């Protein structure tokens, strides 16, 4: 019967069959059963005690009548911690180690060439490699349910916790695999396992903290998303959490699937980047909207501080987007050659398409127009949100102007990264990372050493080169300093744009000459 099941799996997903066949032997299965049983026995033993009701004689050690007292709710919490932590840390280690081994042997490229889709292969890995950990965890479910019933924990909480843990494990697993495809470094499996353990601990703690195991009720929290009162409605909170983790899974999966299918391509398409940025802005706005909506007319410092935090969070997002959609040197050169020869690019076949269409949607075109559109999405959503707050009009205009300075600086970082990717080096990605990090960290370091804190002169230099400085110097800086700083940012952005255009035009000419001369 078991052989028939494996045969059916082989027809459905050969990669899953390959992984299970190498792992589900008797020795490994029996060892997994023994370890899971021992862990469950220890959990029950530690949380059980024999209570004596009556003894044979006063002061005697013998017990005539008694009963076992079991702390069921403590057992539920112990299982909810121990098995998911093992599932995350050991599962991540196994997946990363397996991918690293396949890469070092060269078999990963062979797997890529199989007729099966990349989704089938990746799902086979995700389901098959940690299969013994899945099996050991499933063996603990009967005790988990019995303990929940014995302790009075609602089965709806058990079901919700199980679903959230499944979605969270999948997110951590796919993120670990994506990181493995991006960076092959020594001891990556161990490092990823510890990172997964750390992230998993925060995730599990966040889920468990929502339920009071002493009172056996859901905690009442001050937590809203837009006008939805998540803190007092457990079902809404669960739906919000599962949708949030599900959307995060979707975007990580898109990047993982594209990277596995084409190791030299971008992590996301430009079209996908618009969806990622838009969905993240809506999610973040929903979390922060209650704080923004309650601001009064004179809450100017609060609004500026609020927008400083929002801008910083989005800086991190956009650095990831820049890395995810910026094409490499060869892709840019191919695009530049087609632009030079046809006045546009090629859309899959021989049909020319417009240059602007390629800049907005194309896989090989520079990312700067797409980054600008993503920044426009960010600025538009938060400008509308700020305008709907209760702060006075002058403060709203100041906050919207601050968004403008943040947008231009992020675009400058994108241009620097794209220019760095044109370097003829196998480590062009590292060069791009280093130059962008230098552009972010070096200006505040130098200005701090030369002039002291951000509140000191010259405000123009701070605004033009240091991200987030606008929010700190607004109340001290003159209008002339603010305007001149913004103009300086635009000048830097234009110079970088012309530099990139010149290099691409030069590349298009140099790449086209051999084709035109027949050499």
Automatic annotation (TrEMBL):
The keyword Ribosomal protein does not apply. The keyword Transmembrane applies. Keywords: Membrane, Transmembrane, Transmembrane helix. The chain crosses the membrane at residues 28-46, 75-96, 126-149, 155-173, 185-211, 231-253, 274-292, 304-325, 367-388, 400-423, 430-451, 471-496. Coiled coil: none annotated. This is Uncharacterized protein. It comes from Oxynema aestuarii AP17.
